[in-house]
Amino acid sequence: MTAIVTGGTSGLGAAIAELLRSRGKRVITVSRRESADVSGDASKRETAQRAVEAAGDDVDLLVNCAGIGIYGPAGSYDDEAIAAMIGSNLVATIVFCEAFAPRFMRDGGTIVNVLSTAALTGKPNETVYCAAKWGARGYTEALRAEAKGTKLRLISVAPGGMDTPFWPEKRAGFMDAREVAAVIVDAVDRRVNVAELVISRG
């Protein structure tokens, strides 16, 4: 079977893709990088459509892991930064769910939406990031309600800080993305229903 992983060439997305492959899954990565199996902006329907075509008929897992962070005090965000944050962290999740959720509701499949602990509580200097992640959380909860009684399984994941290229400098004390990936993939593989995960150090 096949998995689609957005943001799959770096950080947590790359760790998830690598682990899925090690467990025998065919993986199609999506990112802006040319090294991705599907290269493009995940917030664009055209990119999602190319991912659908690349996956074929046996896709049964979508991991929405695309995202960027731009931080600063309120009033410091220009239009470009706001659009980039909303596009990558919220619109991309919606676009890919729109592409795969109807099929998974009918035929079966799992969607993992990687949010952040910023989707659970407001944080200073992260106003726009929190807004995007709270939006993704709201979309996920509404989609879960809509999918009740169907064959779609939906897992939301709120990881704390990870030491990945998401940050310009190494973050001491942050989680290893491979450890977080293992928790996520284990949840996908479990037969019991796992709806929400909050992953933090300690």
What's the short story on this structure?
The protein has 202 residues and is of the alpha/beta class. Helices cover 43% and strands 18% of the residues.
Give a description of the structure.
- The chain has 202 residues and is of the alpha/beta class.
- The protein has a single domain, classed as Rossmann fold, CATH 3.40.50.
- Helix content is 43%, strand content 18%.
- The protein is built from five helices and seven strands; from the N terminus they run βαββαβαβαβαβ.
- It has helices spanning 11-22, 45-55, 79-107, 127-147, 177-189; strands at residues 2-6, 26-31, 38-39, 59-64, 109-114, 152-159, 196-199.
- Helix 5 (177-189) links the parallel strand 6 (152-159) and strand 7.
- Helix 1 crosses helix 5 and helix 3 packs parallel to helix 4.
- The longest helix is centred in the middle third of the chain and has 29 residues, at 79-107.
- The model has no long low-confidence stretch (mean pLDDT 92).
Order of helices and strands: EHEEHEHEHEHE
* Shape designation: globular
**CATH architecture group name:** 3-Layer(aba) Sandwich
- According to DSSP, the number of beta strands is 7
Strand order of the largest sheet: 3-2-1-4-5-6-7
* Averaged pLDDT: 92
Distance between the termini: 34 Å
Query: Could you state the CATH homologous superfamily?
Result: NAD(P)-binding Rossmann-like Domain
Class derived from helix and strand content:
alpha/beta
Low-confidence stretches: none
Q: Taking Cα atoms only, what radius of gyration do you get, to the nearest Å?
A: 16 Å
